Amino acid sequence: MRSISWRKRARRWSSSRSRPDEDLENAPPPQASVHTRKQNKLGKLAQSYLRSKRLREQPCRFDVVAVVVNDEGGVKAIRHIPNAFSVAAW
Description:
Order of helices and strands: HEE
Number of helices: 1
Low-confidence stretches: none
Helix content: 10-25%
Strand content: 15-25%
Largest sheet: 2 strands, antiparallel
Number of strands: 2
Radius of gyration: 14 Å
Strand order of the largest sheet: 1-2
Shape: elongated
């Protein structure tokens, strides 16, 4: 993956809505698990996070990073999909 400058806002942040990565196991191919229902859920989770940090006017971007592992658990492939989806404006 090419080098990208990232800025981490929070680590393992959660709310009563759930953690965003709770159901990523056993989903072939990985990016297919980010269906419309999950996109909406992630959008609401992002809205909740931004509201909790008083960042209502902050732009929000949703990238998907698909990781494929082999039978031994080693990384077989990584695919970064920038701006993978958008959600309705809050």
